[in-house]
Design a protein that fits this description.
The protein has 165 residues and is of the alpha+beta class. The protein has four helices and seven strands; from the N terminus they run H-H-E-E-H-E-E-E-H-E-E.
Length: 165
């Protein structure tokens, strides 16, 4: 059996082994071409741009936000923006469950509940427009609503998330 690869008929077996093995000793980055480096740099720049614009995306905390608590689709309590900016708490009963709601610095949460699954408590602080904390057994929904950010357009309709055809 011949140890030489088909293109190296003039080389001894020892030299063929060294030539065949030599490409494995190069580090991985030596195999990259200029296009690979260009692609990696482009991905890094796009990631940096997205992370740097994160706080400026729609739905960030803003002036004029209020909190709304609904039970079975009916608004039970509305906390205006000026009251939401201060600290406070209140208690609420819905469908036989007792809830304690805390608010401070423009954010709100359900801090205690006696519902069985405790998902509403584990959700934590809700502070961005459109965020929701819900308790399914108690049919309770805590949501942040707010005035439109200036310069975001003059429409009063909510933004479309998904269109399915």
């Amino acid at each position: 059996m011949d140890c030489r690869p088909p293109g190296l008929a003039m080389v001894s077996c020892q030299e063929a082994f060294v030539l065949n093995r030599s490409h494995r000793s190069l580090p991985w980055y030596r195999w990259l071409r200029w296009g690979d480096y260009f692609l990696y740099i482009l991905i890094a720049l796009v990631a940096l741009a997205l992370f740097s614009r994160g706080p400026m995306l729609p739905g960030s905390t803003g002036v004029g936000q209020s909190a709304e608590i609904t039970v079975d689709g009916e608004v039970v309590k509305t906390i205006p923006a000026d009251q939401l900016a201060q600290s406070g708490s209140f208690e609420l009963d819905a469908h036989g469950f007792h809830y304690t709601v805390d608010y401070e610095s423009g954010r709100i949460r359900i801090s205690r509940a006696d519902c069985p699954d405790q998902v509403c408590v584990q959700t934590g602080w809700v502070f961005r427009q459109g965020q929701v904390s819900a308790c399914v057994p108690g049919h309770l929904i805590l949501s942040i609503n707010g005035a439109q950010v200036p310069g975001a357009g003059d429409t009063t309709e909510p933004e479309v998330d998904v269109i399915i055809r």
